[in-house]
Amino acid sequence: MLAQQVVNGIVLGSIYALSALGFTLIFGAARLVNFAYGEILMLGAFFTLTLMSALGLPFFAALPAGMAATALLSVVLFYLTIRPLTRKSYTSLQGELQVILVTLGLLYVLRESAFIIWGSAPRKIEMGISGIVLIGDVVLTRQRLVVILIMAIMVTALYLMLYRTRIGKALRAIAQNREGAAAIGLDGDRIIAFVFAVSGALACVAGSLLGTLYAVEPAMGGAPLLKAFVIVIFGGLGSVPGAIAGGLALGLIETLTGAYISFAFKDIFTFLLLIAVLLLRPAGLFGRVR
Amino acid sequence: MNRLALPLFVLVMAILPQLVSDYQVYLMTLTVIWAIMALSMGLVLGYVGQINLGQIAFVAIAAYTSTLLRLNFELSFWLAAPVALAVVVAVAAIVGLITLRLRGPFFILVMLAFAEIVRLVIANWQEVTNGPLGLRGIAPPEPIFGISFASKTAFYYLALVVLVVSLAALLRLVRSKTGRMLVAVREDEILAEFVGIPVMRQKVIGLCISAFVAGLGGLLLGPFLTILAPSQFTLFASVDMIVMVVVGGVGTLAGPIIGAVFLTYIPEMLSFANHFRPILMGVVLIVVTLFAPRGILGLLRSLKRTPATEARDGR
Predict the structure, then answer these.
(1) Residue (of B10, B15, B36, B49) closest to B202 by Cα position
(2) Nearest CB partner across the interface for A233, out of B109, B117, B239
(3) B92 — alpha (psi -120 to 50), left (phi > 0) or beta?
(4) Number of neighbours of residue B308 by Cβ within 10 angstroms
(5) Taking CB atoms and an 8 Å cutoff, what residues of chain B touch A84?
């Protein structure tokens, strides 16, 4: 029973980690809190779903196309709404507040547009993989195994990108010191646009996976956004390892408290834990004070 | 604000319900209640200098506390109201002491978490709050001093009085020493600390006052809607208040009220389809932030700007 709950927690945690990664990348590179992130995730899921139903593509062909479409949308939104505000500086408090206002506006526009385009009926994404695997007495559907696998692939790809490529290096430079990076000739806006693309692609994967396990609907973005907040605060805003550890931890905490303490109050428990962490370690468990 | 604007506004708002239909009175009451809540957000955003995504929690606490006292202990509205307001201010003080130490995004996220905790407790504490189904059949306030509030128009006047008194009190507050200290803290915390302003205390006082005003809105909400449910108190209600403040003009007290009129009365009157109202809110928020960060009041002022007023305002 416990082993089963732990495995369930890891599956849920994998999706949480994926949704938190895109959010934390944007914060790490540009110091922006993106409230529209949950809606990007929702649109990503709808893109995958629509590609599958309109073109008859299988899940594993529709997903990369959906990722590309979501990345493109994310970059377009960055240039249209966020860059005009941050052109001068990414660090002023005034700019920070304005970015929050604009992304809150985007949240409304994107969610309600999805209601108008796709309607409110929840729909499921069929991965086309059936069957179960037995490990000891733990039951795991193959589909859930694929979820964990996709998470591992995405995390590996992200690590290779961050630590083995020039653009990854530039991205880390921007995150560490924007002015310094500009002084050695890095184009901040283009790198941040790239971060928005990566974050959009990750959001699409997280949204599509949520769609295979639960359902795709216009209101689905709210919960992953709140979870991403909690995770990045546990793990430290802007920290990639923190987002992965935080995501897995949150998945486990939720599954275990839901199973053994109280299902109704599991979210309250998470938020209380969040406040406690912030009081004891204001920069998160993995974060450093800048 | 222009010296004549407030009396003129009160006069118009007081005469109008005598001339228009019941439905219009309903819309005006809704607008006034949103204006009270937006006013409370205006104080946080413009004078404490923080985006508070948890403001709706103060509204919810006041609404539920007062209504539960009336339903379970048969207290009159007028006795339940001060108790509920005291609870809200106490909660704001405790929450403020914890959260106002945090900076930038951390304050925003923790206040959001606080509001979610309040909403989830309301939604899950079935025995007391009746969960997602909510509290139903909330009566209008009991008569007091021989005035009955059973009619829609009488309740409208009650809401209007609350709004005008709050506005007048806040106008005095921001011109008082406390208000000027708040602005000093907002502009430069370190400098304010340096000249001897108790920064933390000022911020907590600012949040408590704003929670009190939000609580006033919450008190009216129950009797007005006759039903309270947790779904009314999501993050999006706080965002709606923010949109009103930003549209009207941050850093002013008339701004939130203008914003409430623009974003409650006008969309309702045009009876926008369900999903177009939030889209309108979102587009307005984006466009105003990008192109008119000072809101409607800022636009009016820049139209009026002459060399003489510029010299007076020191621009």
Answers:
(1) B49
(2) B109
(3) alpha
(4) 8
(5) 290
